[in-house]
Specification:
Length: 426
């Protein structure tokens, strides 16, 4: 990343089209707009997700823009497990930016657990998760929906100040910033001097942002259409959800400097934050497969062998025919050599779970049906031997691309489970 000028401004609060039916910034067009504005870096902070992280990173690198990976997470009012009350429907926004690889890994964990454990209307983190996964992250206090701005709007200055100090204690001095926004909203302008006062009294630094949901001011109407689709309203409905004005766009450095002329450090801090954030993705085609983990299992290789061999006896009898034994031995050698044992176990795990829960799973389609290991593990329901299906179409040492199991149930009408010919495509 090229060295930032001291007075440079960097957007640290931006929503792409992956803030679904809310953001209207297309990533490729975002990069072109940033280049027009002469800005050298940008943070992507979509609502509650990291869907665009890779495409954003690639597009930014291609355009010569420094990418900052981030997310505007939802923070539960109580805990991520609490649901069902009006208080639990109230959640706070918080902007998290990855300073390094550890921060990225922690943000992935936060977003994943927010979806898997904390989802209630929106994916939510809580103080427990933030306490566990804050390392490597830079935190901004967010927009009017943030916890601190909401306390200020309610006239609870002392609580807002105490909350700011609590976040600073968690993320560490220099890693938590009070976010200043001015879209011309009365509530924002009421809060601005109070946020600055908290900063002066506590030493917590300031960072100026614009809550960008579209690229140019003229795009505000397009974003309004997205909100109408999201809420089931029409553009002419007087009760539709809408932003108060058309100021939520990628503003120029000059516009932001004019808005925050009284606190120039809030502008300067954005470039300093950007200079600290360095996350790199290895996108050279190298596979980074997850490791299989299961309580009580220490040796995954042994578990894989046990599943294959016990399944071989169940499918073919005891003792199984030599043809099946030889075929399995050959497949196991290739699977182990190419490092796909964990992959087989992961697929086996979620298919086993799906079947136990009554979730429809297809019998196997495509090249994966040619694996006797998959058949004996229960991943597929098709015996490859009588139909002379080739394992090599699925996996062989010369294959450079990642194999995959097609297990969708939609594409098949299962009439019987004992013969391949009765699986009829629909």
């Amino acid at each position: 990343m090229s060295e930032q000028k001291n007075d440079a401004f960097i957007h640290l609060h931006v929503h792409s089209v992956y803030s679904l039916l809310d953001g209207a910034c297309r990533i490729s067009e975002m990069m072109e707009r940033l280049k027009e504005l002469g800005q050298t870096a940008v943070a992507l902070t979509d609502h509650g997700n990291l869907y665009a992280a890779i495409s954003f990173y690639q597009a930014a690198k291609k355009a010569g823009i420094h990418p900052i990976i981030g997310c505007e997470v939802y923070v539960a009012s109580r805990t991520r497990f609490d649901r069902g009350t009006a208080l639990d429907r109230k959640r706070y926004h918080l902007v998290l930016l990855c300073e390094n690889q550890t921060g990225y890994q922690n943000l992935v964990k936060l977003v994943s657990k927010a979806c898997l454990e904390g989802f209630y209307q929106k994916p939510r983190v809580d103080w427990e998760l933030l306490s566990q996964y804050h390392e490597g992250l830079i935190c901004l206090s967010a927009c009017l929906a943030g916890e601190i701005p909401r306390l200020l709007s309610a006239g609870r200055y002392d609580e807002a100040k105490a909350t700011a100090l609590r976040y600073q204690a968690l993320f560490g001095a220099g890693n938590f910033f009070l976010e200043l926004q001015d879209h011309g909203l009365p509530e924002e302008r009421q809060n601005l001097p109070q946020l600055i006062r908290i900063s002066r009294e506590t030493g917590i630094p300031l960072a100026a942002t614009n809550d960008a949901h579209y690229l140019r001011k003229k795009d505000a109407q397009m974003q309004q259409v997205l909100l109408c689709i999201q809420t089931g309203k029409t553009i002419h409905d007087p009760n539709r959800m809408e932003f108060a004005n058309d100021e939520f766009y990628l503003k120029s450095t000059a516009e932001m400097q004019a808005l925050f002329a009284s606190v120039p450090e809030a502008i300067t801090n954005t470039s300093q934050i950007a200079a600290r954030c360095h996350v790199a993705f290895q996108l050279d085609g190298t596979l980074h497969l997850p490791k299989f983990r299961m309580d009580g299992v220490e040796d995954c290789q042994n578990l894989f062998l046990q599943l294959c061999r016990s399944g071989l006896r169940q499918r073919y009898g005891n003792p199984p025919p030599q043809e099946a034994v030889a075929r399995m031995k050959k497949e196991i050698a290739v699977i182990q050599e190419m490092g796909y044992v964990d992959y087989f176990l992961i697929v086996w795990d979620y298919i086993t779970y799906a079947r136990k829960q009554g979730i429809p799973v297809g019998p196997g389609r495509g090249s994966g049906a040619g694996s006797i290991c998959a058949y004996c593990m229960g991943i597929t329901q098709i015996d490859p031997l009588p139909y002379h299906l080739l394992f090599e179409r699925f996996l062989n040492p010369e294959r450079g691309s990642m194999p995959d199991f097609d297990i969708g149930a939609r594409r098949f009408l299962l009439k019987r489970q004992d013969t391949f010919s009765e699986y009829i495509a629909v």
